[in-house]
Design brief:
seven-stranded mixed β-sheet, 9 helices, Oxidoreductase
C-alpha cells in the first residue's frame, strides 16, 4: 500500500490527538484531482483543530490543514491536467474533508484556483487563507463604496495573519490605516507594513456604547465580540465594517443604533464556501495589490513536523504575521 506523511487527528477518550504519521492512499476521500502538496500554512482555525480547543474537526480520522498550494498529479476534471499549479482554500478541508498538512491531497477540481502569474506556491501560502480572507474583506468594503478619500480604515488583530495582510494591501491602495493590537510592542512592525496609526486594543475592549464618537469610515475585524461592537459604534455615517473572525468570541454585544441612526453596514466575510469567481478575483488582486517585499518580511517558514507546536502559539497570540509550512 502506498503511504504519505500527514498530520492525522483522531478522536480520543478526552478530546482529540494529533500526530505526524504515515497515511494510506486508500483512505483518501473522493475527488477528481490529486495534488502533490508543496506548501501549506498555519491559520487560527488550524490552531483550534490541532489543539482540540474548539470542535473544528467533524470527521475522524482527519488530516489537518485548511489550505494548500501545489502541483496537480492526476486529474479527471476538464479544467485541470498534470503539472498545473493550484491553490485551494477552505471548502471544509481540515474539517469535513481531508486537509493540507500532507504530501498528497485529493479534492474536487471545482475547489481549485489556478496560481496567478507572479505568485509562487510558497507566496500563495504566505498569503494563505488569512490573506485571501483579508482580500475578500477589502473587496467587500470597495463594493460598499469605500475609497481612500472616505476616511481612515481600522484593522483589528493587526499583528495576526489577516491583520498583517490587510494593512499591507490597504496601505498600498492608499488608505490611512489605523492598526489595533494587543501587542503595542509590535507598533514598529505594523507601521512597517503601512499602518499610519497604532492603537491599543484596550480602546475597543470597554463596554460598547450604542453610539460613540465617529472615528473611521470602515474597518476589517478578525476579533468579533466586544471589539466588533465598539468598532460599529465608532464607525462614521454610511461606513462599513467587514467581519471575518472571532478570536475574542462569537457574541456581539451591540445594538441597532449604528445601523439605523448612522446607516452603518456590517459586512459578513466567509472564506470557506465563497463562490469560485470571487476567489479568482481575490487571488488576482493579491497578485497586483500586495507588496511581495512586505510579504517576505512578515513570513516565517517551518517544517511539517513543527506544525503541532505552533498550533498552541497561534491561539496564544504568539505568532506574528504569516507562517508557511514546507511540505515537500
Amino acid at each position: 500500500m502506498a503511504t504519505f506523511k500527514a498530520i492525522r487527528i483522531d478522536k480520543a477518550d478526552k478530546g482529540t490527538t494529533a500526530a505526524l504519521t504515515q497515511f494510506d492512499d486508500a483512505e483518501l476521500m473522493d475527488g477528481d484531482v490529486t495534488v502533490r502538496v508543496e506548501w501549506s500554512t498555519l491559520n487560527y482555525k488550524d490552531g483550534l483543530a490541532l489543539t482540540g480547543k474548539a470542535p473544528v474537526v467533524r470527521r475522524f480520522p482527519m488530516i489537518a490543514g485548511i489550505d494548500f498550494a501545489g502541483t496537480v498529479e492526476q486529474s479527471s476534471h476538464p479544467d485541470w491536467k498534470a503539472g498545473d499549479k493550484v491553490v485551494c482554500n477552505g471548502w471544509g478541508m481540515g474539517e469535513t474533508h481531508l486537509g493540507a498538512y500532507a504530501e498528497k491531497a485529493r479534492v474536487k477540481g471545482d475547489w481549485l484556483v489556478r496560481l496567478p502569474d507572479g505568485i509562487s506556491a510558497r507566496d500563495a501560502m504566505a498569503i494563505g487563507t488569512a490573506g485571501y480572507t483579508a482580500m475578500l474583506s477589502v473587496l467587500a468594503l470597495e463594493k460598499h463604496g469605500l475609497t481612500p478619500k472616505s476616511g481612515p480604515v481600522v484593522v483589528t488583530g493587526a499583528a495576526g495573519g489577516v491583520g498583517s495582510i490587510a494593512i499591507a494591501v490597504l496601505s498600498k491602495l492608499g488608505y490611512h490605516v489605523i492598526a489595533s493590537t494587543g501587542r503595542m510592542s509590535e507598533a514598529d512592525y505594523l507601521k512597517g507594513l503601512g499602518a499610519t496609526e497604532v492603537i491599543d486594543r484596550a480602546e475597543l475592549s470597554g463596554v460598547p456604547k450604542a453610539l460613540a464618537k465617529e472615528r473611521w469610515a470602515g474597518g476589517i475585524d478578525s476579533v468579533g465580540s466586544t471589539t466588533l461592537a465598539n468598532l460599529l459604534s465608532m464607525t462614521r455615517y454610511g461606513g462599513a465594517i467587514a467581519a471575518c473572525g472571532l478570536a475574542a468570541g462569537m457574541d456581539l454585544p451591540s445594538s441597532v443604533a449604528p445601523f439605523i441612526l448612522r446607516g452603518v453596514c456590517l459586512l459578513g466575510i466567509d472564506s470557506v464556501m465563497c463562490p469560485i469567481e470571487l476567489r479568482r478575483t481575490a487571488w488576482r488582486r493579491l497578485a497586483s495589490d500586495l507588496d511581495k517585499a512586505k510579504l517576505a518580511d512578515i513570513t516565517h517558514e517551518i517544517a511539517l513536523d513543527e506544525v503541532m507546536g505552533y498550533g498552541a502559539k497561534i491561539l496564544g497570540g504568539q505568532v506574528r504575521g504569516r507562517i508557511v509550512v514546507k511540505i515537500v
